[in-house]
């Protein structure tokens, strides 16, 4: 899993590339926790996530909860098909509340629920 940062003032954009799975879990969880604590707005670009398992979903949930606890914002964008499938399977697509672009068509999470 590659983690690529793009910072612009108080906001931080993070591109995740590769498999968001048990093997990358500790590194990704720790790095996201640091970034969420430092930045009031973190955007996760997920278009290059080609695989996600239950631990990857847990990382996204924990990051969302941490941001909420700190009154910061975590936004998910560019959902890959693997991420969409995993979040839909768990019934969590609407939980994150971010627009989802699928097949070149933007929909709100409510349309997926």
What does this protein structure show overall?
It is a single chain. With 113 residues, this protein is α/β, with parallel strands linked by helices. It has helices spanning 25-38, 54-69, 81-89, 93-96, 109-112, and strands at 2-8, 11-20, 41-52, 73-77, 100-102, 105-107. 25% of the residues are buried. It is built from five helices and six strands. The chain has one domain (2-112): 2-Layer Sandwich (Transcription Regulator spoIIAA).
- Helical stretch count? 5
Low-confidence parts lasting 5 or more residues at pLDDT below 50? none
* Rounded average pLDDT: 89
Binned strand content: 35-45%
Order of helices and strands: EEHEHEHHEEH
**What is the approximate shape?**
globular
- Helix and strand content put the structural class at alpha/beta
Query: Helix proportion of residues, in percent?
Result: 40-55%
Strand count, sense and barrel status of the largest sheet are: 4 strands, mixed
Q: What is the CATH topology assignment?
A: Transcription Regulator spoIIAA
Produce the secondary structure layout.
Elements: E1 2-8, E2 11-20, H1 25-38, E3 41-52, H2 54-69, E4 73-77, H3 81-89, H4 93-96, E5 100-102, E6 105-107, H5 109-112
Parallel strand pairs: 2-3, 3-4
Antiparallel strand pairs: 1-2, 5-6
Helix pairs in contact: 1-2
């Amino acid at each position: 899993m590659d983690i690529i940062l793009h910072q612009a003032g108080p906001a931080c954009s993070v591109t995740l590339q590769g498999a968001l799975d048990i093997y990358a879990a500790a590194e990704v969880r720790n790095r996201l926790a640091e970034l969420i604590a430092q930045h009031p707005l973190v955007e996760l670009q997920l278009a290059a996530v080609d695989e996600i398992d239950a631990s990857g979903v847990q990382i996204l949930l924990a990051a969302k909860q941490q941001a909420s606890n700190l009154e910061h914002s975590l936004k998910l964008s560019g959902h890959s098909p693997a991420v969409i499938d995993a979040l839909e399977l768990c019934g969590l697509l609407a939980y994150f509340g971010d627009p989802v672009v699928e097949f070149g068509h933007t929909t709100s999470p409510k349309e997926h629920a």
